[in-house]
Write a structure and sequence with these properties.
By secondary structure, the protein is mainly alpha-helical. The chain has helices at about 1-25, 35-40, 45-60, 90-115, 115-135, 140-155, 160-175, 180-200, 205-225, and strands at about 60-65, 70. It folds into two domains: about 1-70, Winged helix-like DNA-binding domain superfamily/Winged helix DNA-binding domain (Arc Repressor Mutant, subunit A, Orthogonal Bundle); about 90-225, Four Helix Bundle (Hemerythrin (Met), subunit A). α4 (about 90-115) packs antiparallel against α9, α5 (about 115-135) runs antiparallel to α6 (about 140-155) and α5 packs antiparallel against α8. The radius of gyration is 18 Å and the shape is globular.
């Protein structure tokens, strides 16, 4: 029950932050109050606040910059959201994974065909940072999200991007608990490099194949979970 409660606090906090941004008239590029002030205004703990901010960042509504603060990024786009009743977590995880394989696989192929030089540079930057963080045993989760978001943007299909982000947040919430496994990311790290290389080389077939390898590893871990 405590885990469910924590998840609800995170979701409510994200909604309240969006409401606060609208009511205060914040626009793109505006800096939000400090985490301490936001936590006080919302009446939530720092951990729940950080989860809420991560959720909004994944939807491209805010941007968290280390050492600088939280900035409003996009408040006007129409966004698609998904709500699914979960009776069997493992079964639901596999179903979400199937949807992600289909949608993100399409984005990967489109990115290979449409990625601009700037998008390629961003992917290479996040890949190099993921490698550096991993070698120094630092948390790479934020960089991994940014890497995948860059692929979605590179697909040059805002509708597809919005749908994937909606499903990605659902996947991330499930994956963090109870199936979280740091070893999975370490095992799939080389695939991230080959995926980025395939997109850079505009090889859509290779990019799709590499992404399928990543999803095979994810689904295998779900099957093996108790």
């Amino acid at each position: 029950m405590n885990k469910i409660k924590r998840r609800l606090v995170h979701e409510l906090a994200a909604k309240e932050i969006q409401k606060y941004i609208r009511e205060q008239g914040f626009g793109e590029g505006d800096k939000l109050p400090s985490l301490e002030e936001l936590a006080s205004v919302l009446g939530v703990g720092r951990s729940s606040l950080r989860e809420a901010l991560r959720s909004l960042q994944a939807m491209d509504m805010i941007e968290m910059i280390n050492g600088k603060g939280v900035y409003v990024k996009d408040t006007h786009s129409y966004r698609i959201s998904a709500k699914v009743k979960v009776d069997d977590v493992k079964r639901s995880m596999l179903q979400v994974s199937e949807v992600r394989r289909a949608l993100e696989g399409m984005a990967v192929e489109l990115a290979a065909a449409r990625a601009t030089d700037q998008m390629i540079k961003e992917m290479e930057y996040y890949i190099s940072e993921i490698k550096r963080y991993s070698e120094n045993q630092m948390d790479t989760s934020e960089l991994d999200i940014k890497f995948h978001q860059t692929i979605y943007k590179a697909s040059d299909n805002p509708v597809l991007e919005s749908v994937i982000l909606s499903m990605w947040k659902m996947f991330e919430v499930f994956w963090s608990n109870p199936f979280g496994d740091n070893q999975l990311f370490e095992a799939t790290l080389p695939i991230h490099f080959t995926l980025a290389e395939a997109i850079k080389n505009k090889d859509g077939q290779k990019a799709r194949a590499e992404f399928n390898k990543l999803m095979d590893a994810v689904e295998a871990t779900i099957h093996e979970a108790e």
